[in-house]
């Protein structure tokens, strides 16, 4: 079945790449790998959330409410279920092509660096028991026309998540979507707390991860001139590909997007410790070339 599913993804244009644990560091990106808590606070620090006050939820926008789509969240709360954390439990859903899942976001204009600390489990297990059950960070081009003006082929976003993808083991998933065509990569993950980082500098987007007690590692780098100046930036979660994949395989995107999937067997609990926003360091100066 796995081989068949991979073929279906490939035939549909969704390239799935399984990678070994990334270790390479690009010299130009070293500053983002070395920063422990980000640079000194700037104006974007006003968007930070330590998730220690339930009232802070009022300062976030949800994708479903902002653009008029069904709510795909079973539970979301701050400091109630797990003091000092945001708990996100999505219903059966997935981010892929034109298909939507939960997104909790702030709007950010220009360059940014957003970092979060997250732990993903199943409802009763360390690793979720349903395929493609992950949570993490996304940057997405907004659609102010909302559901009433929706057209397929208009999705532009990028994300990095932790959980489990095509197996029953911890994995990191990165996904880049341009004009609703998704390219995803899977690499080995770990259980427990993980820090994730998403950096925008001009048209360059960097996706980074750091396991507990380990250094930052660059998971993916993409050039995305398709992204507008202002993006929806924040937290996502999705789960239970087993139950929902028919909506992708049989191209039932309209049916999927316009109703919440109340059935299925969702199995993801994401606990976010905090999220912090900063402006990234400027690009290094390029020395002028000598002329003769």
Strand content: 35-45%
CATH topology: Jelly Rolls
Q: How many H/I helices? A: 5
CATH architecture: Sandwich
Biggest β-sheet, characterized?
Answer: 8 strands, mixed
**Outline type:** globular
Rg (CA only): 18 Å
Number of strands: 15
Secondary-structure class: mainly beta
Provide a brief overview of the structure.
With 292 residues, the chain is mainly β. It contains 5 helices and 15 strands.
Task: Describe the secondary-structure layout.
Elements: H1 2-11, E1 15-18, H2 30-34, E2 61-62, H3 63-67, E3 73-78, E4 86-90, E5 103-109, E6 112-121, E7 133-140, E8 157-164, E9 171-178, E10 181-188, E11 193-201, E12 204-211, E13 217-223, E14 230-238, H4 241-249, H5 253-257, E15 269-278
Parallel strand pairs: 1-10
Antiparallel strand pairs: 2-5, 3-4, 4-15, 5-14, 6-11, 6-15, 7-8, 7-14, 8-9, 9-10, 11-12, 12-13
InterPro entries: ConA-like_dom_sf
Protein name: DUF1349 domain-containing protein
Explain what you see.
The protein is mainly beta. The protein has a single domain, classed as Jelly Rolls (Sandwich), CATH 2.60.120. Helix content is 12%, strand content 37%. The protein has 5 helices and 15 strands. The protein has helices at 2-11, 30-34, 63-67, 241-249, 253-257, and strands spanning 15-18, 61-62, 73-78, 86-90, 103-109, 112-121, 133-140, 157-164, 171-178, 181-188, 193-201, 204-211, 217-223, 230-238, 269-278. Strands 1-10-9-8-7-14-5-2 form an 8-stranded mixed sheet. A 7-stranded antiparallel sheet has the order 3-4-15-6-11-12-13, with no helix packed on it. β8 and β9 (171-178) form a beta hairpin. The protein is globular, with a radius of gyration of 18 Å. Mean pLDDT is 89; it is low at 1-13.
């Amino acid at each position: 079945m796995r081989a068949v599913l991979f073929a279906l993804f490939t035939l549909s244009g969704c390239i799935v790449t399984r990678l070994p644990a990334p270790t390479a560091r690009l010299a130009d990106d070293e500053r983002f790998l070395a920063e422990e808590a980000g640079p000194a606070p700037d104006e974007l620090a006003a968007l930070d959330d330590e998730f220690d006050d339930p009232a802070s939820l009022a300062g976030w926008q949800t994708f479903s409410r902002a653009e008029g789509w069904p709510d795909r969240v079973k539970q979301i709360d701050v400091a109630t279920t797990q003091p000092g954390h945001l708990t996100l439990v999505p219903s059966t859903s997935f981010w892929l092509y034109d298909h939507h899942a939960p997104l909790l976001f702030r709007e950010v204009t220009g360059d940014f660096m957003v970092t979060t600390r997250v732990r993903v489990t199943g409802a009763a297990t360390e690793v979720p028991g349903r395929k493609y059950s992950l949570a993490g960070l996304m940057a997405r081009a907004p659609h102010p026309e909302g559901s009433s003006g929706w057209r397929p082929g208009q999705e532009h976003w990028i994300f990095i998540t932790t959980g489990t993808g095509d197996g029953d083991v911890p994995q990191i998933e990165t996904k880049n979507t341009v004009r609703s065509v998704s390219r995803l990569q899977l690499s080995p993950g770990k259980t427990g707390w993980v820090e994730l980082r998403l950096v925008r500098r001009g048209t360059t987007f960097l996706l980074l991860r750091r396991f507990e007690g380990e250094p930052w590692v660059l998971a993916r780098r993409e050039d995305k001139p398709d992204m507008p100046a202002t993006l929806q930036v924040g937290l996502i979660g999705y789960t239970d590909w087993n139950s929902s994949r028919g909506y992708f395989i049989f191209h039932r995107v309209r049916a999927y997007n316009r109703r919440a999937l109340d059935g299925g067997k969702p199995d993801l609990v994401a606990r976010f410790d905090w999220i912090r926003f900063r402006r990234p360091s400027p690009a290094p100066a390029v020395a002028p070339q000598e002329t003769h």
